[in-house]
Amino acid sequence: MMRRYSLAVLTGAAIGLATSQIASAADLGPVKRAPPRAPAVYVPPAPPPFSWTGFYIGGNVGAAWTHAEVFDSFTGNSFSNSQHAVFAGGGQVGANYQWNWLVVGVEADFDWLANNHNSTNSFIGRGGDAFQLSFNDRWMTTVAGRVGVAFPTFNNWLFYGKAGGGWVGVNNPTLTDVTTGNSLSISNSNSNSGLLVGGGVEWAFAPNWTAKLEYDKLFLDDRSFTVNGTVLNGDVLTVFHRNVQTVTVGINYLFNWWH
User: Fold this and answer.
1) Domain 54-255: which topology?
2) Secondary structure (H, E, C), 140-167
3) Considering the entire predicted model, what is its pTM?
């Protein structure tokens, strides 16, 4: 009899406890489950900013034109010499170093000039004959320092100026008596030098490749020639205000192993 009573008590207690747990669970509401996680997406690191530091080598093509004035000591007159643009092409080597937005460097270049005997205007000399003075610039080489600005927001663009010196190789100037057709080479010097200034813009379109557009002007020294063997015998011809201007486009390969 006692065993039956004890079993009945235990059964009632178990039923009561289960009912209480069910009621508590009902009061708490449905169980919330965490939403599934989205799969991880790989984001590659941003590439390092472009650096202009390093050595470079490249080529260029473009146009060149010259200007000069000539003074005749006998007549006391001046006459001009100007030329239409001709083809120019060659190469360049250089090196840059960049601090933040400032880029400094040095560059040397060499260009062939397709210059075919550009001549001055005719002038009347001694005896009434008409004369012309002709030049033939064959090549141009320069060495210059460069200073540029690489903007922080888009530093694959470089705006720069340059200054230095240059040389132009010329055939001996030729003096032609247009009236008689006779001509005379009047100098044995075949190179001229002067001051170079210029500037341009350069764009890094790939990790090691850049393209540029550049303008340069080379101010050549004055030259004087004494004429012998013609009706102008003893005249001194002085060439002044001489310059060579170039506009070129180029491409460079940058060996920027320092960064």
Assistant:
1) Porin (2.40.160)
2) EEEEEEEEEEECHHHCCEEEEEEEEEEE
3) 0.74
Sign of CA dihedral 4, 6, 9, 14: negative
pLDDT in tens, 53-111: 999 999 999 999 888 888 877 777 777 766 678 899 999 999 999 999 999 999 999 99
What is the token pair recorded at 47?
A: 């590439």
Name the 3-class secondary structure at 80: strand
Closest CA to 81 of 96, 66, 59: 66
Rounded to an integer, what distance in angstroms lies between the CA atom of residue 249 and that of residue 259? 27
Contact, 198 vs 212, CB < 8 A?
A: no
> Could you tell me the two tokens for 122?
């005719």
Report in angstroms the alpha-carbon separations of 117 from 17, 71, 221. 117, 19, 20
**Which whole number is the average pLDDT over 243-247?**
93
**What is residue 15's predicted lDDT score, i.e. its pLDDT?**
54
> Where exactly are the structural domains of the chain?
54-255
Q: Which two tokens stand for residue 252?
A: 């460079």
Structure tokens at 68: 């000069």
User: Which helix (DSSP H) or strand (DSSP E) does residue 2 occupy?
Assistant: helix 2-28
**Cβ neighbours of residue 202 under 8 Å, at least 6 residues apart?**
148, 157, 158, 160, 210, 211, 212, 252
Convert the pLDDT of each residue in 158-193 to its tens digit: 999 999 999 998 766 777 777 776 776 666 556 789
Distance CA 4, CA 1 (A): 5
213-222: per-residue pLDDT in tens? Answer: 999 999 998 8
* CA within 13 Å, CB half, 64: 27
